[in-house]
Specification:
The chain is of the alpha+beta class. It folds into 2 domains: about 300 residues, 2-methylcitrate dehydratase PrpD (Orthogonal Bundle), CATH 1.10.4100; about 130 residues, 60s Ribosomal Protein L30, Chain: A. Helices cover about 50% and strands about 5% of the residues. It is globular.
Length: about 475
């Protein structure tokens, strides 16, 4: 490994992250392993549900044409693939339905990149189940802290998000590199180089959330792919700059300008876990829509019907409106079931009319539902506005204050100030399993077999073939 001798990784931010990664790998906390187990279960279930999506079909087609050594499995493919290719497929599946876990205030979906990278690298390496779970925990924590370090209190928002950058895939590539490095058993020095190399590989723009297009659904697959390539490159001797994160031409200057919160990145590293603030999504929609969905479900439970609604005003934080309310025409008439998942008006309409699953579910977001004239009529009655109370709570939660004027002139108000799935309103392990069961229905009886394997993965001596059925 002499190629790295001219760039020692000592004392810099990336070196400290690498020290964290290898120290956790040496003695992973049991609570962290339990958390990783549930995130693995969640990601696999989501990925099964996403098998029929167009981006997943594109990813499978690409890796099949590429070919290569059969070292890791991809969900939906019988043949085994090189680890980066398997990670590309599984990461695309994990994010294709926008049903993956979410952290605030970084506004990251970490597991969709980290779990596929950790799984593919662990399969290739023949790593144990405990090593896989540790890799997931390390990668998630590093990705989240990178996102947190780009949060600007002056604007009360992520600078990544403000600039239209998809921090999930940008920070996810670095977290994926750390996860792969743990799975491969790399040294602290090589792990630091893996992350430093990955800093040149992460990318992603959020315009698809506003204007359409399917590329965002491959962002996490490419981040997972990049992370493994970075770790493999570091193992082979490629090096990265030691000040890759904090340097004048480093990661944070490039993506966030002068915003870099070192304490958010490195403070209490290994003692306080940011992953604890990363919640499993109850609904397969953009997280900014969730409290609006909750409000609609609550109003419906109180007897409100779609035909009773004259108008709906949803107060929310201004930063969320760019994603779920604008441009208005695209949100009240989304072009597909997928785009409806990013629409505040449409998700409210679907929930008020009566959803399925844990509130609303994938079955509700079909192209037929988007064409339903009753849904369209109700969505057109919904408007959004910035609300000062919501502004004060954002971005620790994404609250909604809903005011409904009924056709007989009554006014109803429903406030949902905390997101379901967060520490304030957590999903239980049983609810995570229900979500998996719904998502994994296409597997039939094999869904239970796969769940049992995942829930007992910590006892496995190696994870090769973990997902094979």
């Amino acid at each position: 490994m002499a190629a790295g001798a001219d760039t020692p990784m000592i004392g810099t931010a990336v070196a400290r992250l690498a020290e964290f990664a290898t120290s956790v790998a040496a003695a992973p906390p049991p609570a962290v392993l339990h958390d990783s187990t549930l995130r693995l279960l969640d990601v696999v279930g989501i990925s099964v549900a996403a098998l029929g999506t167009g981006p997943a079909e594109v990813a499978r087609s690409l890796v099949t044409r590429w070919g290569g050594a059969p070292l890791a499995g991809a969900i939906g493919l019988a043949e085994r693939l090189p680890a980066p290719s398997a990670a590309l497929v599984n990461g695309t599946l994990a994010h294709a339905l926008d049903f993956d876990d979410t952290h605030v205030p970084s506004i990251l979906h970490p597991s969709a990149s980290i779990v596929p990278a950790a799984l593919a690298a662990a399969e290739e390496a023949g790593a144990s189940g405990t090593t896989l779970l540790t890799a997931i925990a390390v990668g998630n924590e590093i990705a989240i802290r990178l996102g947190n370090a780009g949060f600007d209190p002056a604007i009360n928002n992520s600078v990544f998000f403000e600039r239209g950058l998809h921090a999930t895939s940008i920070c996810g590539a670095i977290g994926a590199a750390a996860a792969a490095a743990v799975a491969y058993g790399l040294s602290t020095e090589r792990t630091a180089h893996a992350m430093a190399i990955a800093c040149s590989m992460g990318a992603g723009l959020l315009e698809a959330n506003r204007a359409g297009g399917s590329v965002k659904r491959m962002h996490c697959g490419w981040a997972a792919h990049s992370g493994i390539v970075a770790a493999q490159s570091a193992a082979a001797g490629l090096t990265g700059p030691p000040t890759v994160l904090e340097g004048r031409f480093g990661f944070f200057q490039a993506y966030c300008g002068d915003t870099y919160d070192e304490a958010a990145l490195l403070g209490e590293l290994g003692e306080r876990w940011e992953i604890d603030a990363c919640f499993v999504k109850p609904y397969p929609t953009n997280v900014f829509t969730h409290t609006g969905i909750d409000a609609a479900l609550a109003l419906r439970a109180k007897g409100l019907r779609a035909e009773d609604v004259a108008s709906v005003t949803i107060g929310a934080a201004a930063a969320t409106l760019r994603t779920i309310a604008n441009p208005r025409e695209a949100k009240i008439r989304p072009e597909s079931g997928y785009h409806a998942q990013f629409s505040g008006p449409f998700t409210f309409a679907l929930a008020l009319r009566g959803g399925s699953g844990l509130g609303v579910y994938l079955d509700d977001f079909t192209d037929a539902a988007v064409a339903d004239p009753i849904n369209l009529e109700l969505a057109a009655k919904v408007t959004h506005e910035s609300d000062p109370r919501c502004e004060a709570i954002f971005p620790m939660h994404f609250p909604s204050i809903v005011t409904v004027v009924t056709t007989d002139g009554h006014t109803l108000v429903e406030e949902v100030l905390a997101n379901r799935g967060t520490a304030a309103r957590p999903l239980t392990a049983d609810e995570v399993r229900i979500k998996y069961d719904l998502n994994a229905r296409p597997l039939g009886a094999d869904a239970d077999v796969l769940a049992d394997r995942i829930l007992s993965v910590a006892q496995r001596g190696h994870v090769r073939g973990l997902l094979s059925l």
